Request: fold
Amino acid sequence: MPVKVLMVCLGNICRSPLAEGILKSKVNPSEIFVDSAGTAGYHIGKAPDPRSIEVAAQAGIDISLQKCRRFTPSDFDNFDYIFAMDRENLMHLQDLTRNSTDSKKLYLLLEEAGIPGDEVPDPYYGGPGGFQEVFRMIDAATDNLLPLLYRS
Ligand code: 4NP
Reply:
């Protein structure tokens, strides 16, 4: 059984689709399964934001076929590691936990990866530079997480 990793942001169209695509590009899918979801339901069924698709494509990663979905409490049963992009979404996920087993699966992405800055900022209302910054942060974070995920 692969280790199952879920990347979570607010909309599941900017940050977590990038996190899903970037981590997928670094792992063997038979060993590590990666998915993403949003805590909000504004964009369900939609493809990622074109700016995320573009910044991923520049790195040779195709995220264009991903479809936005909302986080559901059953994700606590289906995933081993759930990484939130920022503290607000981490708190939202904590509110949805049913027991301590659920809570133990929750992590703040950058904190767990030992990357300074704590939060992957929401780039939705900013310019393209924000998406490049988000890409760099998640790229560094996912590199650092590989030993943890492969030890599981
Ligand atoms: P994400 O960014 O959480 O990184 O996907 C956002 C996407 C959409 C919205 C906010 C943040 N929105 O308000 O629609």
About this structure: Strands lie at 3-9, 32-38, 81-84, 106-108. The chain has seven helices and four strands. The mean pLDDT is 97.
